[in-house]
Write a structure and sequence with these properties.
about 45% helix; two-stranded antiparallel ribbon; 16 strands; eight-stranded parallel β-barrel; about 500 residues
């Protein structure tokens, strides 16, 4: 079964945050790390199979306390699972990588921290389940500072530079595995394959297999469209056989099943978490498979909001009143005390002071859909049960991260329940027409930022259409399960 790893960026939150008064509890104020919790501490069923811990993100927090026996510590703990607050009896695994994006602009991984021996020792001493070899991303361009302007500018890598990065990655992988075997380390080693076309990725995978790797990670694919990712997976499929394959930073929901069919056994991505606060129209994932817009009610002391309010003749006191009215209206609507129009009017009165490029009327329609459909009521996750309407309020990290954890949990449930969904779809005779597939392709093409013609051509290929068909069947199946749960499907 496909494993999902969530990259860790210290996404913790205050479990006792006061949503009514918008205030952290005393425990958080005294010691945020000690008091705050991770997503796996909030759900009975963790929203992921494992956590990806990138060394470049936490380099400043890792110390070598005794050079004689290589004792590493992070925040005064000597075990990575203790640091991540993972219970002893938990099945959650921890994968460590270098976080090569942190030094992507360098000519090579910086020493001494990213030496093969230091990284391997760190994985072993801190108790990682999986350790990824030291790699160097093969990207299209790097950022370099212009000595005249002082600004960072793009510099595209030459073919020679790309080949050098591939070689650095393979040389490190060879040394990494040899050192792992010599020291008898317990963590499972993963070799990274870098490339810049299908042939170079295939050659890298072939080299890693000859070295003796059973677990291979494919890097730098996040910069490419799904069509190229699938071409690479097809290119390496004859080589991998019964070996494990990990996709770094790749989560394309409509192609997850195809990735798995092509040999992918694990992947990592924070996209479902980040969408909670980074996308204007896709902040909350409903249990029916649809995305909803979160309702913006930022803190009234937001500098940009204060400036814009002043320009429009509103004082700081006016701003606080509008903010409180919007929050109260949403709470009252959730409790059934007021209707949708009154709640929406209070929200929009405050919302019109926000600086954004989106059309105000368009946002009102998105907000109205979220409020009218009340997707949080049909979700069974702990976050929605605890927060109610607060889960769809775009405001501060404690709401936004909880919404992101909800999104992640729901995605992970989809992976876990894929076999059950298949049986339900068969029993309920759920079907998808060609016109529905064409409509979905049209929608996917519309949202593409570039290369729309190329994407449309790819999506119309037979294997892509089959993936989209399965996606739509899954979506309909989830909707049917929701109906059954509500009793609407009963006679």
């Amino acid at each position: 079964m496909l494993k999902y790893f969530l990259p860790d960026w210290e996404d913790r939150l205050d479990p006792r945050f006061d949503f009514v008064n918008d205030e952290y509890c005393q425990g958080h104020k005294d010691n945020p790390y000690k008091h705050d919790v991770y997503a796996h501490q909030l759900f009975k069923q963790p929203p992921y199979d494992g956590i990806l811990f990138s060394l470049s993100v936490f380099q400043s927090k890792i110390s070598l306390t005794n050079a004689a026996n290589d004792t590493y510590r992070i925040r005064d703990t000597s075990n990575i699972k203790t640091y991540l607050k993972i219970p002893l009896n938990s099945t959650i695994e921890v994968m460590g990588d270098c976080g090569a994006f942190g030094y992507v602009n360098e000519n090579s991984p910086p020493l001494p921290f990213y030496s093969v021996k230091n990284v391997a020792n760190l994985y072993e001493k801190l108790g990682f389940d999986y350790g990824v070899s030291v790699d160097h991303l093969v990207v299209k361009y790097v950022l370099e500072r212009n000595p005249e302007t002082g600004k960072k500018e793009r510099r595209y890598l030459t073919l020679r530079e790309k080949k050098k990065r591939v070689k650095i990655t393979l040389d490190n992988a060879h040394e990494f595995l040899r050192y792992h075997k010599k020291q008898g380390f317990k963590f499972k080693p993963m070799g990274v394959a870098q490339g810049y076309d299908v042939r170079t990725y295939r050659d890298s995978v072939s080299s890693l297999i000859r070295m003796g790797y059973d677990y291979i990670g494919i890097g730098s694919l996040v910069q490419y469209q799904s069509s190229f990712v699938i071409q690479v997976l097809k290119g390496i499929q004859p080589l991998i056989k019964d070996r494990s394959v990990h996709l770094f930073g790749i989560l394309r929901p409509e192609f997850v099943k195809e990735f798995e069919a092509l040999g992918v056994t694990s992947l990592d991505s924070a996209s479902f978490l980040r969408k909670a606060w980074l996308r204007s129209g896709q902040n909350y994932l409903g249990s029916n498979g649809d995305w909803y817009t979160a309702i913006r009610v930022p803190q009234s002391d937001n500098a940009g909001l204060v400036r814009n309010a002043a320009i429009n003749g509103y004082s700081t006191r006016d701003l606080v009143k509008l903010e409180r009215r919007a929050l109260k209206a949403l709470g009252d609507y959730d409790a059934g005390k007021i209707g949708i129009r009154k709640a929406l009017n209070s929200v929009m009165k405050y919302d019109e002071l926000l600086i954004r490029s989106a059309d105000e009327n368009a946002m009102r329609k998105k907000y109205e859909r979220t409020l009218r459909e009340k997707p949080w009521e049909s979700c069974s996750c702990e976050m929605c049960k605890e927060l109610g309407i607060h889960i769809v309020i775009f405001r501060g990290c404690n709401r936004n991260k909880r919404r992101g954890f909800h999104n992640t949990w729901l995605f992970h449930q989809g992976i876990r329940n894929s076999e059950v969904d298949g049986k339900v779809a068969e029993e309920e005779k759920i079907e998808v027409s060609n016109s529905e597939i064409d409509e979905e392709i049209e929608n996917m093409t519309k949202t593409a930022a570039e290369n729309k013609d190329e994407l449309q051509k790819f999506l119309n290929m037979p294997q892509s259409k089959e993936s989209i068909k399965q996606l739509l069947i899954t979506r309909k199946t989830i909707q049917r399960l929701v109906e059954i749960a509500k009793g609407s499907g009963m006679e």
